[in-house]
Structure formats: C-alpha cells, structure tokens
Amino acid sequence: MSFQKPKGTQDLLPGVVEKWQRFEATARGLCDRYGYKEIRTPLFEQTELFQRGVGETTDVVSKEMYTFEDKGKRSMTLRPEGTAGVVRAYVENKLYGDPDVTKLYYIGPMFRYEQPQAGRYRQFHQFGIEALGSAEPSIDAEVIAFGYRFYRELGLQGVRVELNSVGNPDSRVAYRGSLQNYLRPMLDTLCKDCQSRFEKNPMRILDCKTDAHRFDDAPSILDSLDEESAAHFAEVKQHLEAMGIPYSINSKLVRGLDYYTHTAFEFKADGIGAIDTIGGGGRFNGLVGQIGGPDQPGIGFAIGMERVLLIMEQQGVADPAALPLDVYVVAMGEQAAKYAVPLLYKLREQGVRAEKDYLSRKMKAQLKSADRLKARYAAILGDDELNRGEITVKHLENGEQASIPIDQLGDYVKPQS
Ligand code: HAM
After folding, report:
1. Residue 47 alpha carbon to ligand 1 centre in Å
2. 270: confidence class by pLDDT, cuts 50, 70, 90
3. Which of 72, 63, 65, 73 is nearest to 47 (CA)?
4. Ligand 1 mean position to 69 CA, how many Å?
5. Strand 44-46 to strand 390-395: parallel, antiparallel, or no bridges (unpaired)?
6. Which of 48, 140, 339, 380 is close enough to 236 for a disulfide, judged by CB 3.0 to 4.6 Å?
7. What whole-number distance in Å separates Cα of residue 256 and Cα of residue 65?
8. In angstroms, what is the span from residue 278 Cα to ligand 1's centroid?
C-alpha cells in the first residue's frame, strides 16, 4: 500500500523550505519595524464563528469550509482565513483593554476546499496583519504601505495595489438598491448562486467566479458613498500619495468576505495565469461587535505565501544562499570515531556548523561527503593525533593544511564575523 499527500496540499522539502523561511524572516522583520506582535490562534474554531464573521453567502463559508463534528458533537471548522480567529481571540482575551492600537500578525496554514490549480491549494499559507482599535484613515494607508513594502523587501517586482471603498453600512444600503436595479433585467441568465444572492447579498454577485466578467458596466459603489465614507476614502488616498505608494482604483473590488467596510484593497502580480491576487484586505469596523465584542474598528490584510513564492521563482528572485558547513570531522580509527561524538557536541555548543560521518565510511568517502555538504574545512582525526591532542585541519577550497590543538578547533573553523 502506498500513500499520497491529500489533493491540494504540498510537502515542503529541504531546498524549498529555505525560501519559506526567508519569506517568514522578512515578514517578522517588517512586523518588528511596524510594531506588530505575533499571535497564534487554533487551526480550528467553532463553525459559527466563520458563519457569522465571514458571512454565510460567501463562497468561502457556503462551499469551501472543512467542517466536521467532533466527538462531543460540536461543529468545528478548519480555519479558512485568519481574521475571524484573531478577532475572536482579541475579544476573548479582552485585548481591546489596551489603550493603544492592538497590532497583531500571524503566519500559518489556512484550509479551503477549492479546485486545486497553480497557485490555488486546499491547505495554503497566509501571512496576515490586523490593526484593531483605530478608525483613522492613516492606519488604512499604513497597512497598505506595509504590504507594498513587504513585496519590495522580498525582491518582487511589479506588484500593483488595487483600491476601493465599500463604504459604511448606510452607503451599502444605497448601493444595494442601485445594484439590484442594474441586475434585475439579467437575473434569469445568472448562475444559480447569483440568483439566490440577489436578495440576500447582491454585492457578492460582483465577485462571482462564473459571471463576474458580465458586470463591467455595473454601477460603481463609489457613487453611493455617503459623506463620511467618501471623506474616509479621500484621506486614505491622500496618505498613500504622501508615501508615494502607487495604486489604481477598482470600483468592482468587493472582496470575497462579508466583513469589509470602507477601505478594500488587493495586491496583484502577473505570473500564475488567471490567478493574480497575491494578497488582499480591508477595514472591518463591524466584525468585533458582530462576534460579541465591543464596538471596535479594525483593518488588515493577508498575503498568500504559495502565490508569492511562485511568482518570485518566475521572476528569478535569487534564492537565499545556503550557509556552508564550517567543518566536517573525518575520523580514522576506532578511538577517533568515538572521540568525534563529544567533539561534535562541543563544536555545536560553540556555535559551529559541524558534521561527521554516521555510516562508518572510509576516509575518502568521508571527504566526498564533506565536499557534497560544501564544508569550508575538513578536520581529520587519527588515533595517533588524538593521543597527541592534535587534529589536522584542511581548507577544502585552497587545500591549505595545518595541525592544531584539538581544543582550538572551534575557534579555528568559526567564520570571522
Ligand atoms: P483572502 O482574499 O480570502 O483574504 O485571502 C488572502 C490571500 O490568500 C489571497 O489574496 C491569496 O493570495 C491567498 N489565498 C486565498 N485562497 C487561497 C488558496 N486556496 N490557495 C492559495 N492561496 C490562497 C483573507 O483571507 C482575509 N482574512 C484577509 C484580511 C485580513 N482582511 C482583513 N484582514
């Protein structure tokens, strides 16, 4: 019997995982500079959290969730996105008590039952940030600028920012009417899902995977913004301009999740066919209240790690150079092989990247292994030398060789910083 990974998942093997680590290190570094602290929430939550938070008429909730009943007969769901869980934790742990803005970030797997293709997986990973507690447009602009900067720090070229406002609830009521008027004549020809969304949530129709292309001349939500929403949007744009962040307005951008208010945005890049959205986010002023917390505003984004890494590869962004091994200890003789065990322990304790042979191989095979691992030095230890307390170190690139006291090996091979 042989086993295969589940459809839509990936094994991240050595050689590839280093790229993920670089992505994560860049994300953590930038979060540090922007004042975001890490939060780790469970990979599964009560199903109702997503139904209420993300919205029952969204594709994510109505079609894509991994939902199961646990042994206690509770309905649980593998998180399809990070915001709902972060907001749940923010409420449950009363983080809103902080007089400052609460800035949180997360990196981890999300689960959506989607049709897998290049850039679309069932288990995928997001790096996301959420800023809770401020309704000021300056933080909307800062969050967008953070995302833009992040792609640049990774070395990605040509990332575009698409921006829209979905307004406050009053603006959306006004827009709902004009959108329904526009859609009514074509209602019979829309897909079944869209027909059922017409009354429940007509804005979702603009986001339909099959019909979206037909709505090019749909009314713009920007024409329905009330004074407060229009003023908020104008200020976000001003701040972006002041920071020199390029963006284009896309008034059809409604995002696939129901919690958005005011600012909505996506990051796009060419490279993996039809799938060009490498991140997205927006403001969610009603969400904290909706899931039982106080009336606190929030804004954030999530970036799809797989998609970013695919595009980095296509753009030929240089791989992180693997650090070479400092020393490979070649032991000859029984006594030397025994001694190599505590020697390696000590070297690693000193911060040296050290390896040895674990297969009782002859000296030549051990040296080959040192070459394969790109060791800078081989340290050759025979029983006689061991009795003298010495070891031979050979620089594997220039061939230079020296005999040194064993207890100086760590300092000798350690890279000078
Ligand atoms: P989202 O647009 O659903 O937003 O997902 C964010 C990003 O995750 C997408 O732009 C895409 O890059 C990636 N992504 C989504 N689904 C998949 C998939 N099946 N395979 C690979 N990548 C995928 C959210 O999840 C919101 N929680 C973002 C947010 C945070 N809004 C406010 N705060």
Report:
1. 18
2. confident
3. 65
4. 25
5. unpaired
6. 140
7. 14
8. 8
- Kindly write down the DSSP assignment for every residue of 175-200, as one continuous string: HHHHHHHHHGGGGGGS-HHHHHHHHH
Q: How far is the C-alpha of 295 from the C-alpha of 311, rounded, in Å?
A: 39
Best probe residue, ligand 1, of 277, 283, 287, 308 (max atoms within 8 Å of C-beta) = 277
User: Ligand 1: which atom is nearest the Cα of residue 80?
Assistant: 25
**Ligand 1 lined by 147 (C-beta under 6 Å):** no
What is the CA(242)–ligand 1 centre distance, in A?
27
CB of 281 shorter than 6 A to ligand 1:
yes
Q: Are 292 and 91 in contact (CB under 8 A)?
A: yes
d(CA 258, CA 264): 11
For 261, residues 6+ apart whose C-beta sits below 8 A from its C-beta are 166, 167, 168, 169, 282, 283, 284, 285, 286
**Which of 103, 124, 268 for a ligand 1 pocket mutation test, highest count of atoms within 8 Å of Cβ?**
124
CA distance 330 to 373: 13
Angle at 322 between CA 276 and CA 349, to 5 degrees: 130
Residue nearest ligand 1's atom 11 by CA: 304
Residues forming beta bridges with residue 68, ordered by sequence position: 76
pTM greater than 0.90 (yes/no): yes
Instruction: Give dist(CA 187, CA 207) in Å, integer.
Output: 15
Burial class of residue 53 (count of CB atoms within 10 Å of its CB; 0-12, 13-18, 19+)? buried
pLDDT digits (tens, 9 = 90+) for 165-189: 999 999 999 999 999 999 999 989 9
Q: How far apart are CA 131 and CA 161, in angstroms?
A: 19
Give distance in angstroms: CA of 157 to centre of ligand 1. Answer: 20
Amino acid, single-letter form, for residue 360: S
- Closest residue by CA, ligand 1 atom 3: 256
Tell how strand 327-332 and strand 377-382 pair up: parallel
pLDDT band at 193 (very low <50, low <70, confident <90, very high): confident
Nearest CA to ligand 1 atom 8: 304
Q: What's at 40, amino acid-wise?
A: R
What is the C-alpha separation between 274 and 11, in angstroms, rounded? Answer: 24
For residue 394, give the amino acid letter.
K
> Ligand 1 centre from 322 Cα, in Å?
30
Q: In the β-sheet with 75-78, what is the strand arrangement from edge to edge? A: 44-46, 75-78, 66-69
pLDDT of residue 200 exceeding 80, the answer is yes
Residue carrying the six token digits 């602009």 = 141
Is the CB–ligand 1 distance for residue 193 below 6 Å? no
